[in-house]
């Protein structure tokens, strides 16, 4: 109940902020420009940010106010209740039972009503209960026993498995997590909700295939398949991958202040675009675009994200064996890499979103031998064998290029040859396809933060069978600890679980944490209501309140 109280309080704070935005515009005696240009971390490859590829993309930064839900992630990463969309009520605590009520006037931009069918699809796709769905994470959804939904209605009852009362349940069914189920139902010409709830395998297979691919973004998309449930809707996809959002005239809540926002994937031209004033908001990983000078008519703020920049090792190839991963970690100069980023080394794998003492202490003792490069220890761990390792990252990215360069220099004396692979496609896909042996990325393989804002949810990136467990790591003890963290709010118990996990994870080395990814938010001094966000939704969490004052 405490979590629910914090959620409601956050909603009040955000409502006040929205009112302040309006008064600020009035005080400035200005009017909002009709167009804003917004640059985000990675590619905009899918409208569905819940697939492995979609979750690692910049889609969440772009579509937080296009695909709404029962909550969204505010400026501190907290979940804020979105009462325009609907309400959530706790009707049982043991087991946890929640009632979700969608607003009566909630409708997609194509005129179709938003219904409980959309919750059923979101749960089915992300629960791990049904095969075929390429979902990034099962966190929270795997603990739902069933969803009661009468097709076409606006109310759903969600019951959790006994003793699996997920502490961060407000993270479920939030912005960008629910896709328009009627698009798939119309394509198949059948009631997919009943098929899912009755486990009709032949239909579910088709539903999964469509959920994975229907919402891929490319120029010339059929807009009928991309309806919006928020203040913005997609107008078109440009050559080069930018997505143009325009105000949704069927949105039933407060209208978007800026009528058109073009979301641009990060490229090598950000400095030029800032210099010629052709971009208004830049929300990217700090250092990814080099020094990024700030002209007088812009302002800049740097802040920590909730995601951890890390090395994610492939399950096949030269680093498939644990001794090879250990050797690679031993010659990786984490101290040099963190210093280049201007931050401390990060050690935590299972409490990445937290900034508390537990997260800071998690794994410190076990991590000590991996803080500074030790080529001799690495060579010994390899038994004198030679390795060639391909490290990839989404480019261009000046900071990660420097990271790979530092690793290459440091590991060469250990007999490890490192090659730099700049990717223009999805990092997770390159790792899956065996095109690289290591991916340098944030939580879940993301170019941006990648974090949900919840350590318990983020920890599932190392849970066996989870989509964004890119290293394919499987350890029953760690699975049990991750599951226990999800249902425990007791700090002492969480500290015990983390201390139990640390030596196992440092021994198995499925990933190597480097540092907390820092964020750079650069914007025109004429922009109002733009604020940082440490989660994967980034500054776009409230883009419908943005105003470029003329």
UniProtKB/TrEMBL annotation:
Which Gene Ontology molecular function entries are recorded, alphabetically? peptide transmembrane transporter activity
Respond yes or no to whether keyword Protein transport is given for this record: no
Q: Which residues form the signal peptide?
A: 1-27
Q: What are the residue boundaries of the Solute-binding protein family domain, all occurrences included?
A: 97-456
The alphabetized UniProt keywords are: Signal
Q: Name one GO biological process term.
A: peptide transport
Record InterPro entries: SBP_5, SBP_5_dom
Fetch the PANTHER family from UniProt.
Answer: MONOACYL PHOSPHATIDYLINOSITOL TETRAMANNOSIDE-BINDING PROTEIN LPQW-RELATED, PERIPLASMIC BINDING COMPONENT OF ABC TRANSPORTER
Q: What is this protein called?
A: Solute-binding protein family 5 domain-containing protein
